[in-house]
Write a structure and sequence with these properties.
13 strands, 246 residues, 26% strand, homohexamer
């Protein structure tokens, strides 16, 4: 079966690769959804770092949450030297932090354009430019929350997310995009992003503070859908793929 | 009793056919409701594939979520060769992805028409054209979410769903339509689709990540209404029809 | 006491009659509330069928959900031959499906009338005409959901439901009207229909898929208010009136 | 203490009188809140019937939910002969059902008045007229729901309820007013009526269908605030004041 | 530590004083939040009564819920003779019931003023006048609900509550203000009052009807934050400060 | 790893420093989120006090909730003498209480400016002025609730919080900002502040009144994410970093 599914891209996080039956399917767009501080950015960075270091696969990180310097420093603290990879040409950071500041009302030429549409168009352009320039095999967009939360009505939000997913699909790269959970605890509203992405991984805090990773969805893959415990330490994310959530 | 109910259409998923007391009743319109990644599309595809392969029954798949190529590739990975069936004339894919992009405001001739009404009309036309052309015995509409979520007010949404259900009933084929659950966990709001369809099957993730399938409703059938565990593997969906949800 | 309460109308569902202390009180208007597929229509049909077959009591079914042919076929599959009863003159089907299609804005003569008011007026007229024509002892309205859900504001919905209940009370027949539950699970919002009807029976799915029937309210009767398990099989609804819900 | 509290008015429901430490305090306005079919009207009627029969205390029932004939018949079935009491001059029924039908917009002379204000004014007038005419010692208003639900905003609803409570206080009679619960299950929104009334009794269905009565509040009384089981049978409400809710 | 905290004002409710580590800190503004009938007014009255009787400390009660006569009578029933204290000059009742009736739109001179602002201004004036006149050491405002519920938007409500709290702080007296809980059960929305007051005590009904008192917050004090059972009897509130809530 | 993370700033609360793996990372902006009375202000004050007393690190407290005198007195009661530190030049209090009073509509010169934007601008200016003047190593903003709650729409609130976080990041100091939880109990809505801050600590009351501290998030640190019990006594906050929440 694996063959017909196309090549797998390992994340380098052993337990997660095991849950994923080897890694992400090539060319898929996967949503990484999580609570604050649960390691969404770290998971995505490990995916890029592993590809660049072990597979010589080019990766780009489209960062909407922080400037490159902060990102670099953060990841260095977790043992990932992205400066070196950047020099080697296997990593690029695209600073997209301005997207989330685009004013509500802007103009394209003389035509007034709602700021949020502009934000979306800008992000799409950034993604496509970066892809053309770098031809990456692995892409991360961290995060889409500022963009999608501008569309509180579901009927408006669905086509926006759809546009984004299809832009990412068009790159042929394997793409992770992160997003924020809206609530904690048992039972939650499902977001349209979860249906429109081809895969969904969720990172949550469970009772008393332990953490759990779960693959909700992974089109074209036979994955382990059970929640598994994980920790974050100086080596990054460690998933205990054979342990139960107690 | 089974006789008076009309012929049964097996899904080919052994455990589910057992829960359904043999299969779907001919000519019924059934809603397949599920969380992201729970296999709504796979279930429907197996229904078509089994009919075409084992019963020589024509099937059509009206796809609003993905273009034909993605669908074909996905299902090939699960052992279903729809290309062959297409050549054999027992399968057709109707690409309806454009329906969910129809702008909010459009024009029919010189008359402005709300985009959402247009979307609905287009889908109805597509369904009817496809039926006339192919005279299928099995029909899948995957999914109706983009359409119905444009009508957040229940009093507007009910007639839309009703139109869709009656259009499908008019085809005389046995029809599955998929839709997205709005929330996870215990207790949920019921959707008008669940009342207007003649049958409802629900696919959910339960505690810790196991999956459960349940027949909420099946007009004209004596079915097993208990939730049963299932998994998705390289052979598709496996339902454990005699096991309890723990 | 039973005597002062007036005559009882048995439903023919043994367990339910036992819970009802013999049957419904003559002339009452009872709401049958339920989740999708829980047998609201079957329960009401058994009530009519039993009266016509065993008591020679005329019954009418005012159907807003499906045309007569579908209804007849459905019930035939459960062993109820309403065609025969129709020929015998003890059963009539009033097709009220058009009521739920009445456009939001309509005209009565030259006076524009809100479509929802028109829907209500039409249904009232249909009920009264049918009563005058058939003088039934048992009446079913299946269902009132399309009508009442047009009035999302409670202050508007109460008088509408009140009008309907009083119209039914005016017929002197014993009347069942069905309606849809809005949510599943523990705890729910109460609907004004539940307060305005003289009796309320609720049909729900409980944990893992078993079903429970409960009499919430039955004015003028001493009933069993505990939830009891039931199943639907080829003989219709079987209520286990002496069993506990586990 | 009891002395300083003023005289007690027994309800005649033994277990409830025990929970109330002898009965209601004279001159208090008490809210009887309950789910559909839980016996709000029966409780209030027993209160009037007991006073008239055993204490020769005049009572009036201001009925907004049903015409006098239905009320009389209902209560006769529970062994309360209000016709006799009416002839004896110890009971009067005030038909206030028209209040809930007052149109949203009405006119007082040539001045347009919001229908809901009119409804309130009418009810106040009815209450005061009835009091002047009958000088009752016991008063029931069944129910205030149609009135208060016209004011969905809390800031509008509070003064309306306040007016009503003070009108009732002004009568010097002991007054019960019934109202409808908005939801079932654990945890609920509190209504302003519960704060503005001087006492609150709640009637609910608990798990599996047993019923519980609880005194939430009783100004000037030392009451049992624990929920206690009760049933309704041919003798009316039976409260098991020494039993626990299991 | 106690010394640096300033003097303590005992409530006279032994168990509560124990939970409070001796009483309220002098000059603090404390919110007493509770369900209907849980004894908010009684708790506050005991605080005033104890101060006047045992410490010769002047107290004022600013009553928005009931006229003086009702208050006096209620408390007399619980063994508190406020008439005597009033004559002795250690107690004053300020009738502020009119504040909650101030019309939505009013005029100050020729300037139209929103009724709710007027209500707030009036209450402030009443408080300040009463303070200047009586120089009390203990102040109760019962309750602030009618005032704050006029401001359903949190951004409007915060400054209103802030004004009130600061007015009370300006009096240098120790002040209790009561308010109503919006819901029962586990988990609730927090109100801005709880953050803006310097202390918060909550009175609730727990499962089956037992009552619990809990100190959520008490700036400048080392208090027992555990919920403790209490009852209300003819001696007022009895707190079991060493018992657990079962 | 610790080295690459930059220097640690101990809080002086032993158990918390242990949970934080030594203290806060230098230059981080951390959100301290808590229920009323759970010690948000105390935690932040201990952080400043410890730095000034033990490390000779300058600290400023930007207080929006109370004037300096109240703050000083409160903390003195917990053994922290900020007056002395102020004289020593290692502590400054910035009174920002006026920010929360800025009217909804104000003018900058002749240009009308929404009051809430003005409030934000003023706070930013205050922070930057204070930083320039004092060059602190530790900064506390207590609290941001009045500011952020003026923006109930998430799409408006995100950029406001972002501006604030980036202003604080620009100071190079380690910054704590406090905010109020909106609800109690299991499961809650996540606030955008929690995603935009670099660290999040939460202080809650758990069942029956015990308190728990939990580190939800701490970018660049390997922390203990389990909830741990704590108490507040005359020595301030005591965290039991090795105990479980029962």
């Amino acid at each position: 079966m694996s063959q017909s599914m196309g090549a797998r891209l390992e994340t380098g996080i052993t337990g997660l690769d095991s849950m994923l039956d080897g890694g992400f399917n090539e060319g898929r767009v996967v949503l990484v959804l999580g609570e604050p501080g649960c390691g969404k950015t770290i998971l995505c960075s490990e995916f890029l770092h592993y590809g660049a270091t072990n597979k010589n696969e080019k990766g780009i990180f489209i960062g909407m949450n922080e400037p490159q310097s902060r990102f670099m420093q953060e990841m260095a603290g977790l043992g990932m030297d992205f400066s070196k990879l950047e020099k080697d040409g296997t990593f690029s950071y695209v600073d997209a932090t301005e997207v989330r500041r685009i004013p509500e009302q802007a103009k394209v030429g003389r035509i007034p354009v709602g700021g949020r549409e502009l934000g979306l168009v800008n992000l799409m352009d950034m993604i496509q430019e970066a892809i053309e320039k770098h031809s990456p095999k692995r892409v991360v967009v961290d995060s889409i929350s500022d963009l999608v939360f501008r569309y509180p009505k579901m009927e408006e939000r669905r086509p926006v997310v759809l546009d984004l997913v299809e832009t990412l699909q068009g790159t042929k790269a394997t793409c992770l995009m992160t997003s924020e959970l809206l609530s904690t605890g048992e039972g939650r509203l499902l977001q349209p992003e979860e249906y429109l992405a081809e895969g969904v991984i969720i990172l949550r805090t469970i009772q008393k503070g332990a953490r759990a990773i779960q693959i909700l969805k992974m089109r074209g893959s036979k994955v382990d859908t059970h929640a598994r415990p994980y920790i974050i330490n100086e080596n990054g994310i460690q998933v205990y793929a054979t342990e139960e959530i107690y």
